[in-house]
Amino acid sequence: MLSLALAYLRDRVLTTALNILLLGLAVATLVILLIFSTQIGNRFERDAAGVQLVVGAKGSPLQLILSSLYQIDAPTGNVPLESVNMLRRDPSVALAVPLALGDNFRGFRIVGTEPAYLGLYQARLARGEMFASPGEAVIGADVARTTGMDLGQQFLGSHGLSSEGAGEHDHSPFKAVGVLEPTGSVVDRLIIVSVESVWDAHGIAHDDAVEGEGDGEHSEHADHAAEQGNGHELAPEVTAILVKYRNAFGAVRLPSMINRQTDMQAAVPAIETARLLSLFGSGIEGARLFAWLLALTGGLSIFVALLQAATSREGELALLRVMGASRLQVFGTILMEGLLTAAAGCVLGLLSGHLALAAAVVSFDRLREIGFDPWGPHIGELAIVGAVLAIGVIAALIPALRVFRTDLALTLSRAR
């Protein structure tokens, strides 16, 4: 019966192709929406899991969260180094981790921070050791895999947060001393150095902030900055501060205190992430509804095609019955046509959906920066396939039921 169903489908090749295309578009759209919304949501939740507050320069709270937690936007500015000490002295703060941003290497951001930053993501060293002095760097798993960088390799950071940075800091090279294990978080795509390393790269004097370094090297970097900045010496600053509370009272008091009494802003990752996902959510739900309507349209098209085919083939089906085929076999043949059409649409849709996501990752830097995986399978795809196959079977059910109501003698007499 399978070969007979395939022969019937080939007999209506244009109609069959149209039905497969409709179902394929529906499946592709549903797969894209499912994988995109799931991976983006999971990634945002995972990258923000260890941070309860982000403190930075005044501006957009969402921009502050995107730049400091997810590393996918430009920072709102810098804040004084004393801000870190102020937060650490606060009794409701358990942890305050500074970040210094502004450079990249081949599109991977260089983040100046402290070893405690890696603890926020449970990141562990796969090889090498933690950075201990300016110029030493620990690289994420994706950085090592993409660039081929290994322990002991030196590299130069470029100014700016993208691969189109404005020149390299050739006066302050970095050396890879450690490689991190994969974490599935933002750390995989970062190059982690000390805050002092970022200051050195930009020629910012910080003699009182670094121990074990001579004045000569810092003076050289300060002179470099003075030459570029028309003689104005830059003060040590940080881009943002990631905060964990010691108690629940800090969540109530600290953000409002910072926003009202300082020149900084405090952004709550949970609030800003929920706001961002809600912006995506309405559009995703609308597109998902359209995709299911498209799938139902494909099912309706299958129903009409099979009904017309069953009507025009009544004589052939009756002849099959006379030649020994049972009602169930003929019934199964028509159901098989609907199932095969739906299955072909599922295969086309799954392949097209993942290919479209892969093309989007190549085209949009932001998707690459958040580590989007276009080929990552999702268990929800099985539900989509099951639903579309059910649509194909249901669409073929009514035409197939005509077999049980067929009067063989009357049908054959008409065919003569």
Written account of the structure:
The protein has 416 residues and is α+β, with helices and mostly antiparallel strands. It folds into 2 domains: 2-43 and 284-415, no CATH class; 53-267, no CATH class. The chain is built from 15 helices and 13 strands. Strands 1, 3, 4, 5, 6, 7, 8, 9, 10, 12 and 13 form an 11-stranded mixed beta sheet that branches. A two-stranded antiparallel sheet has the order 2-11. Helix 11 crosses helix 15. The protein is elongated. It starts with a helix and ends with a helix.
Number of domains: 2
| Overall residue-averaged pLDDT value | 83
Q: Uncertain regions: pLDDT < 50 for 5+ in a row?
A: 210-231
Helix content: 55-70%
* Proportion of beta-strand residues: 5-15%
Supply the helix-strand structural class: alpha+beta
Q: SSE order in H/E notation?
A: HHEHEHEEHEEHEEEEHHEEHEHHHHHH
- Beta strands, count: 13
* Sheet with the most strands, sense and barrel status: 11 strands, mixed
Distance between the termini: 25 Å
Over the alpha carbons, how many angstroms does the gyration radius reach? 31 Å
Alpha plus pi helix count: 15
Topology:
Blueprint (H helix, E strand, L loop, with lengths): L1 H10 L1 H35 L5 E5 L3 H8 L10 E2 L1 H8 L3 E13 L2 E6 L2 H4 L5 E4 L7 E4 L1 H7 L6 E2 L2 E2 L14 E7 L10 E4 H7 L13 H14 L8 E2 L1 E6 L2 H14 L2 E4 L1 H44 L1 H9 L4 H37 L1 H5 L10 H22 L6 H8 L1
Parallel strand pairs: 4-10, 6-9
Antiparallel strand pairs: 1-12, 1-13, 2-11, 3-4, 3-8, 3-12, 5-9, 6-10, 7-9
Helix pairs in contact: 1-12, 2-10, 2-12, 2-14, 10-12, 10-14, 11-15, 12-14
